[in-house]
Write a structure and sequence with these properties.
Length: 174
């Protein structure tokens, strides 16, 4: 089953996602997310990007770990996540998004976060994330709340991108 990633302009990307419950097939959701992510070559993918308004996303740092031995390979599904603490220290990182192809911008986010989520067995996990792991988690978490990385840019940056964004919207938002 090949699922197409929903592009910028689709209203589904602006909706808030509902909780995943144990009766939902979280395993199938995660498999579809991983399949689409690997096909497109990203680092993370959230339910809304496949039209699934559920609080689930996947992270796969394999592409980065292959290039940089200091990055730990992580491949996991995150269900019903919460960010319970943000560090005051922030840093910029050049982000992109599979739903906004061809656009990459520096985004300021907290360096370290403490999170709580469930795995696919609905076991609760709490951990502190920093670096690229914290970055990907925050980016994907935003998707679950209808927030895109371009929303975290200055109004001037967004204005400069408006032509590219309108082109993505015209080419098909769904």
């Amino acid at each position: 089953m090949g699922l197409q990633i929903i592009k910028y302009g689709s209203p589904v990307l602006r909706k808030k996602s509902g909780e995943v419950i144990e009766n939902d097939n979280a395993l199938l959701m995660a498999e579809n997310l991983f399949k689409s992510l690997k096909k497109e070559g990203g680092l993370g993918l959230a339910g809304p990007q496949l039209g699934l308004l559920k609080r689930i996303f996947v992270i796969d740092t394999s592409p980065l770990a292959a290039e940089d031995t200091t990055i730990t390979k992580i491949e996991k599904a995150i269900v019903n996540p919460e960010i319970v603490w943000f560090s005051k220290e922030k840093d910029y990182y050049n982000e992109g998004c599979l739903s906004i192809p061809g656009i990459f911008e520096d985004v300021l986010r907290p360096e370290t976060i403490e999170v709580s989520y469930y795995d696919l067995n609905f076991s609760r996990i709490e951990e502190r994330l920093y670096g690229i792991k914290a970055r990907i988690f925050q980016h994907e978490f935003d998707h679950l709340n209808g927030i895109l990385f371009i929303d975290r840019l200055s109004s001037l940056q967004r204005k400069l991108l408006s032509g590219k964004l309108n082109k993505i919207k015209k080419l098909g938002a769904g």
